[in-house]
Amino acid sequence: KVSSSKRKTLDTLGYLAQKNIVVINLYSERKYRGYKYLTKTKRKQLYNNSLAIVADFEAYQTNSQPPDMNRIFDDIYKLGADPRPLIRYQDQIIYLKQIMTYLSPHSGRYSYRKSSTFGELLKDPAHNKLVGDCNQIVTLYIYLYSLKYDITDLQLTTYPGHVCLHFKGIDIEATNGQFKKYS
């Protein structure tokens, strides 16, 4: 059982993360990890870069065809997962697939690098490649997802030295933009 003060703290943190997880993450990196480079001016620049990422993602969505739901379900089925429970979440799955394709290393916008900071990921995509590790890219996925849907739809799955997203029975490997079925 969770105490009421702990519940209140968790509810407040969830509300703030839904509102803007980028702000929460940058604040946490500055305050708790002691990253001195995250001055007020630098954080403002990174917030502006996060808005540039959103604008670029929205332009990508506008200029590309929506993913084929049947193909997505086929891919999930091939992983050994049952896609039928996901039918009622088609809009969310399509949106997640758009994020996955947008941030896939194959798109040229993102590159994985172990032990990166969030500041390395939050670049203006018009001028720089986004570089981050699994923690940073998962946070960016959550941020983009939060623009349209409730982040409580997503869960984190952690493994030794790694983290990925989980959505309604299927894992999302954010570092390479693929659906997975981890055991």
Give the SSE layout.
Elements: H1 4-32, H2 40-63, H3 69-78, H4 90-103, E1 110-112, H5 118-121, E2 130-132, H6 134-146, E3 154-159, E4 162-167, E5 170-173, E6 178-180
Parallel strand pairs: 1-2
Antiparallel strand pairs: 3-4, 4-5, 5-6
Q: What report would you give on this structure?
A:
The mean pLDDT is 94. Helix 1 (4-32) packs across helix 6 (134-146) and helix 4 (90-103) crosses helix 6. The strands form 2 sheets. Strands 3-4-5-6 form a 4-stranded antiparallel sheet. A two-stranded parallel ribbon has the order 1-2. It is of the alpha+beta class and 183 residues long. The longest helix is centred in the N-terminal third of the chain and has 29 residues, at 4-32. It has 6 helices and 6 strands, in the order ααααβαβαββββ.
